Automatic annotation (TrEMBL):
<keyword id="KW-0175">Coiled coil</keyword>
<comment type="similarity">
    <text>Belongs to the GatC family.</text>
</comment>
<dbReference type="GO" id="GO:0006412">
    <property type="term" value="P:translation"/>
</dbReference>
<keyword id="KW-0648">Protein biosynthesis</keyword>
<keyword id="KW-0436">Ligase</keyword>
<comment type="function">
    <text>Allows the formation of correctly charged Asn-tRNA(Asn) or Gln-tRNA(Gln) through the transamidation of misacylated Asp-tRNA(Asn) or Glu-tRNA(Gln) in organisms which lack either or both of asparaginyl-tRNA or glutaminyl-tRNA synthetases. The reaction takes place in the presence of glutamine and ATP through an activated phospho-Asp-tRNA(Asn) or phospho-Glu-tRNA(Gln).</text>
</comment>
<comment type="subunit">
    <text>Heterotrimer of A, B and C subunits.</text>
</comment>
<dbReference type="GO" id="GO:0050567">
    <property type="term" value="F:glutaminyl-tRNA synthase (glutamine-hydrolyzing) activity"/>
</dbReference>
<dbReference type="GO" id="GO:0006450">
    <property type="term" value="P:regulation of translational fidelity"/>
</dbReference>
<dbReference type="InterPro" id="IPR036113">
    <property type="entry name" value="Asp/Glu-ADT_sf_sub_c"/>
</dbReference>
<keyword id="KW-0067">ATP-binding</keyword>
<keyword id="KW-0547">Nucleotide-binding</keyword>
<feature type="coiled-coil region">
    <location>
        <begin position="6"/>
        <end position="45"/>
    </location>
</feature>
<dbReference type="GO" id="GO:0005524">
    <property type="term" value="F:ATP binding"/>
</dbReference>
<dbReference type="InterPro" id="IPR003837">
    <property type="entry name" value="GatC"/>
</dbReference>
<dbReference type="GO" id="GO:0070681">
    <property type="term" value="P:glutaminyl-tRNAGln biosynthesis via transamidation"/>
</dbReference>
<protein>
    <recommendedName>
        <fullName>Aspartyl/glutamyl-tRNA(Asn/Gln) amidotransferase subunit C</fullName>
        <ecNumber>6.3.5.-</ecNumber>
    </recommendedName>
</protein>
Length: 96
């Protein structure tokens, strides 16, 4: 497996529009290389009989029941609005 080079880090930093110092580039190259080595180690595992999961703990619908309940009064809702008119949020026009 190829190692992460300073040029790789500089390329990723440029794409992310980040300015890195030389010591940061070396540090990130080492860290990214360690991550990729760990992933390579994980690829050695046999996962043929492992079913895909989205959670490691079996979960059953943990959402609350969707029941109607009173909402905030309009005057309280509009308290933090920068601008409002006739009970509505007023925003700048986006279309001509």
């Amino acid at each position: 497996m190829s190692r992460i080079t300073i040029q790789d880090v500089e390329h990723v930093a440029k794409l992310a529009r980040l300015e890195l110092q030389d010591d940061e580039k070396e540090k990130f190259a080492e860290q990214l290389d360690a991550i990729l080595q760990y992933i390579q180690k994980l690829e050695e595992l046999n996962t043929d009989d492992v079913e895909p999961t989205s959670h490691v703990i079996p979960l059953v619908n943990v959402m609350r029941e969707d029941e109607p309940r009173p909402s905030l009064p309009i005057d309280k809702v509009l308290l933090n609005a920068p601008d409002h008119e006739d009970g509505h949020f007023k925003v700048p026009a986006v279309l001509e």
